[in-house]
TrEMBL record:
This is glucose-6-phosphatase. It is found in: Endoplasmic reticulum membrane. It is a multi-pass membrane protein. One of its GO terms (cellular component) is endoplasmic reticulum membrane. Belongs to the glucose-6-phosphatase family. It comes from Pieris brassicae (White butterfly). It comes from the Eukaryota. InterPro entries: Glucose-6-phosphatase, PAP2/HPO, PAP2/HPO_sf.
Length: 363
């Protein structure tokens, strides 16, 4: 059954690569923009400059979604199109189909679900929630914006799915699963976790911020433990969780296009570090720095964001990769401190020029 599903997916990919060949540069940019790494390294700092609450929501959804994506990839252990067509026995007795490979094709983890599609769905749903919140804050009682935003965001999500299939790194059903997961996670985590915690209502009224921090840290540590248990359970079952990396090196037309950031272990380190950092440093205090916070310095905020981002980029580039344990440990630590720098230090710096004056908020 799975082989037939894969074969049908390959046929769809061949048609997409034929029909969309003229739009290859655009699809490449779409792939880059919704890369989960770029969301954490670029989009998150930019959003933190505008609104710490929205940035904290983005970080929670992206990091938890990335962790869930890695766990599900290890559970499903599905192939990617560009290596499946070479490994399968489905085409014995007939000519194997040929798929176009680009510099973005050679990702190394299992294929299901699509992390890019899940990230895109999460970001787009979060953006809709943020726009709706701004309209409610400003008392703008109109729904006309939905007629423009909904079709636009729907088109963007479809373009991400097409982009992932165009480069031959996902089957159609993997993109659909990713979109469903991402669209569900964003409102669920905001409605039940981040919003009640930051604005102190619902179940979080029963606990002090310190108790909530301990609870969130316990959840983050549990998530890390689940990663280790899943990884070692596969090993004990005789399954190498990293076998897909070898398949990528075997069938990638240009092995130089393979990057460590596409491995499941790197994604797991990045996402669990960000989750732990969120649990430690995101508190109701982040609500002080929002899109409608009046007394803050945009110049200080912009300069601080640039300097912090540049400093973190240099620190990540300086991590030695000779020792894999050291490499992953240092990356884990850097991702822990990112929420501290962007959600706590940056707001304090931007409001520093007004520290001797009362804080005013536009409601």
């Amino acid at each position: 059954m799975k082989e037939h599903l894969y074969a049908l997916g390959v046929t769809c990919i061949q048609h997409i690569q034929y029909w969309c060949s003229d739009y290859a540069p655009f699809l490449e940019q779409v792939n880059n923009f919704y890369n989960p790494n770029n969301v954490l390294d670029i989009l998150f700092p930019v959003i933190s400059f505008v609104d710490s609450v929205f940035a904290s929501q983005l970080l929670l959804v992206t990091s938890f979604g990335g962790w869930l994506n890695c766990i599900l990839k290890w559970w499903f252990l599905e192939d990617r199109p560009y290596w499946w067509i070479q490994e399968t026995n489905y085409y014995i007795g007939s000519e194997r189909p040929k798929l176009l490979q680009t510099s973005q094709t050679c990702e190394t983890g299992p294929g299901n679900p699509s992390g890019h599609t899940a990230t895109a769905a999460s970001v787009l749903v979060l953006a809709i929630m943020w726009i709706s919140h701004i309209f409610n804050d400003r008392k703008w009682k109109t729904s006309l914006w939905k007629y423009a935003v909904y079709p636009l965001f729907g088109s963007l999500l479809i373009s991400v799915m097409l982009a992932r299939m165009f480069i031959g790194t996902h089957f159609p059903h993997q993109c659909i699963v990713g979109a469903i997961i991402g669209a569900f996670l964003a409102p669920a985590l905001c409605i039940y976790i981040s919003d009640p915690y930051i604005w102190q209502y619902g179940s979080y009224l029963k606990y002090s911020p310190k108790q909530s921090i301990k609870f969130h840290m316990t959840c983050a540590v549990t998530a890390i433990a689940m990663c280790l248990v899943t990884y070692h359970t596969l090993l004990l079952s005789g399954i190498d969780p990293d076998y897909t990396v070898r398949l990528a090196f075997r069938w990638c037309d240009n092995p130089d296009d393979i990057h460590v950031s596409t491995t499941p272990m790197f994604a797991m380190v990045q996402c669990t570090g960000a989750m732990l950092g969120w649990s430690m440093f995101v508190t109701p205090a982040v609500s002080r720095f929002r899109h409608d916070t009046y007394k803050r310095s945009f110049i200080v905020s912009a300069v601080s964001t640039i300097l912090i981002t540049y400093g973190l980029h240099c620190a990540e580039a300086a991590i030695p990769d000779e020792n894999i344990t050291t490499f992953y440990t240092l990356n884990f630590i850097i991702n822990i401190i990112k929420p501290l720098l962007y959600l706590r230090v940056l707001p304090e710096l931007s409001m520093l020029p007004f520290k001797d004056k009362p804080q005013n908020f536009i409601n």
